[in-house]
Input
Amino acid sequence: MPAHAPDKQAVACDGVTTLADLIGYQLRRASIFDLQGAAAALAPAEARPVLMSVLLSIVETPGMTSADICRALSMQRANIVPILADLEQRGLFRRETDAADRRIQRLYPTRRGTEEAARWLALVDEHEQRMLQRLGPTERRELRRLLELIWQGEIES
Amino acid sequence: MPAHAPDKQAVACDGVTTLADLIGYQLRRASIFDLQGAAAALAPAEARPVLMSVLLSIVETPGMTSADICRALSMQRANIVPILADLEQRGLFRRETDAADRRIQRLYPTRRGTEEAARWLALVDEHEQRMLQRLGPTERRELRRLLELIWQGEIES
DNA sequence: TATTGTTATACTCTATAACTATA
DNA sequence: TATAGTTATAGAGTATAACAATA
Output
């Protein structure tokens, strides 16, 4: 077999020749599809995906600062300000200026915040169950694992 | 075992309790990570992911109309106008008004368009190989299959 | 000098409404 | 009436620059 002719096995493994072959394209289509469903699922609670992500961060790790959350979610500090203002106005968390470093505010969920986070999570989970109905439990776990593997390169590189 | 206590197996299968458990969250993080890399990979060619998607559509299915492409890529007709204007100005495709129905323009790639599409695809493929370095060939195929399964619900439902 | 929280602003992407020409 | 291509515009989401307070 000549060296310049790709063999069939190589082509089957990673020969990207069309748009649909690109995993990045599939990722985007699936992500947009999910995001629209998640937004629709949260609408009755007057919430949005980004509100849920920030609130869940506070609930899961009480005492986080807004800068911490921004680093964890890869968003700009400037853009979390109106989101926190929204959640605060609903009484879902409270700010506590750190005694040792008065530049930072530690964020703690209120009782209502913890309850609301669970409610929002359940709404989105319902949507996910519909979205993933064609996938079995093993496939769902495998998908989560593969997706994590991809964007964990974000920190390393 | 009491009915109200979820057994361990059920929790392990679909007990979503944190943000990281949500496949939608993992999808978004992975998709954003990919999109930034793809944009960076295409920048030297003065292209963007959406330009590549539209050009590849024309190359893969010559004779498509702009409305066809919008339906295939789930984008608004209004938003493809400046994209086509850009690609046309670079001489990557030509429009041909359909003789039977003079409302529609069929789009055909030029020689340069086909070459440029292949070049852009190669740039993005390079980026994907880096992004997917932790995944083996079988895992990549499995990931593509699972992602397709998710957003194919877009058409049905 | 560096970081936090904040404001103001710009830029990109996407969505909507309306128009014309054709059918 | 319905669709294709187009224009103009509005809205989200995200990015950048600068500021005061604090370390």
User: Anything to note?
Assistant: DSSP finds eight helices and two strands in chain A.
